[in-house]
Amino acid sequence: MNQRDMSVMDHIVELRRRIIITLVIFIIALIAGFFLATPLITYLQSTPTAQDLPMNAFKMTDPIRIFMTFAFATALILTFPVILYQLWAFVKWIT
Known about the structure:
Order of helices and strands: HHH
Number of domains: 1
Number of strands: 0
Number of helices: 3
Largest sheet: none
Structural class: mainly alpha
Mean pLDDT: 90
Low-confidence stretches: none
């Protein structure tokens, strides 16, 4: 089928498919980020410049927030190439 003959609904279905693929990859990367967060935090704390800086937790939830931030950032970094590819593939599919 020619893309010029496709309806708006067909384009929305294709966009939805690409978003679902990206979200599935993000969830898998988030699970990997949970396993990688602790070694990353430990590595960053062991660098010579970080040993001079004290690590303070001012609230009870600060350690959990830092752990979740590292896991989310790791997942976003791991998913970013997939996001760029899906965006490129959707734009290429439209034109």
